[in-house]
């Protein structure tokens, strides 16, 4: 459902996310339940964090889980890319940040997702660094406006946590750090199962075995999504070259073909 033209509730469900149970649990108590049952959280006598940083290798579900959190909470989702925020508004970046947060407040409850958030911090001190410096300062002001931020949850994502400006990681800002790892063999099975949710898979296909195969070693979630696409394409090729008019069903042979092409994108 689109709302107000700039934010919407994402259509990613928990079932679309494979693995990452620990993160799910954390987000459940810090965001989802807090939005759903505010009365439960009133008067617990402590400041609960509402800023998070997801870090880890690319393609392992940072964006996906952030969207699922918003969906589960029935909250709006605003997706902003660090580099975009910088480039689009050179010269008026502070205004851009202010506008962003004011939008977020207007459509609260809301998850404000900062992808590649490290872009906002790496070049400080370098030439052109003042643009980032000012943007960053404005960002800190907005993040610290706790009173104003009720119902606005901030999630940042980065592949390079080590270059993040320390100031951004303090409590109340992107205060809670959550690692999103490359999937384990068992996680890969869960991811494959999530990825086939809306597809026709032959009943003889053994996803538990496929996910644990050596040729799947070090594949990220995004690599597994690519593997799935390849399997679908293999099934399609076969169908196009046959005269049968059966529906598209993905078989083990299609996965085998896809597996022969798979390679990890993260070293
Ligand atoms: P980046 O750092 O490159 O932004 P990311 O960690 O945000 O990566 P996503 O954009 O969430 O990665 O993942 C890319 C795609 O890979 C997803 O749209 C999904 O198809 C697949 N994918 C990744 N992780 C998972 C997962 N845990 N479960 C199911 N699918 C996944």
From TrEMBL:
GO molecular function: ATP binding; ATP hydrolysis activity
Statement: the UniProt record of this protein carries the keyword Cytoplasm: yes
Keyword Nucleotide-binding tagged: yes
Alphabetical UniProt keywords: ATP-binding, Cytoplasm, Nucleotide-binding
Gene Ontology CC terms, in alphabetical order: cytoplasm
Subcellular location: Cytoplasm
AAA+ ATPase domain residues: 48-184
Family note: Belongs to the AAA ATPase family.
Name recorded for this polypeptide: AAA+ ATPase domain-containing protein
Source organism of this protein record: Vicia faba (Broad bean)
């Amino acid at each position: 459902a689109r709302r107000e033209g700039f934010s919407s509730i994402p259509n990613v469900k928990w079932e679309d996310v494979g693995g990452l149970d620990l993160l799910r649990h954390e987000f459940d108590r810090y965001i989802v339940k807090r939005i759903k049952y505010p009365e439960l959280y009133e008067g617990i006598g402590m400041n609960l964090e509402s800023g998070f940083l997801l870090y880890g290798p690319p393609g392992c579900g940072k964006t996906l889980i952030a969207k699922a959190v918003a969906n589960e909470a029935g909250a709006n989702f605003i997706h902003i890319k660090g580099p975009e925020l910088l480039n689009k508004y050179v010269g008026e970046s502070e205004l851009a940040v202010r506008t962003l947060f004011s939008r977020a407040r207007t459509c609260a409850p809301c998850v404000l997702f900062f992808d590649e958030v490290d872009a906002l911090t790496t070049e400080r001190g370098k030439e052109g660094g003042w643009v980032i410096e000012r943007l960053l300062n404005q960002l800190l002001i907005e993040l610290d406006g706790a009173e104003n931020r009720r119902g606005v949850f901030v999630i940042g994502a980065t592949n390079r946590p080590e270059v993040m400006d320390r100031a951004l990681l303090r409590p109340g800002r992107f205060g809670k750090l959550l690692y999103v790892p490359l999937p384990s063999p068992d996680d890969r099975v869960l991811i494959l199962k999530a990825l086939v949710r809306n597809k026709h898979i032959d009943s003889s296909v053994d996803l538990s075995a496929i996910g644990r195969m050596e040729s799947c070693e070090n594949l990220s979630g995004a690599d597994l999504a690519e593997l799935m696409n390849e399997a679908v394409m293999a099934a399609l090729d076969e169908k196009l070259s046959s005269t049968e008019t059966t529906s598209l069903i993905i078989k083990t042979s299609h996965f085998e073909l896809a597996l022969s092409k798979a390679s990890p994108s993260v070293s």
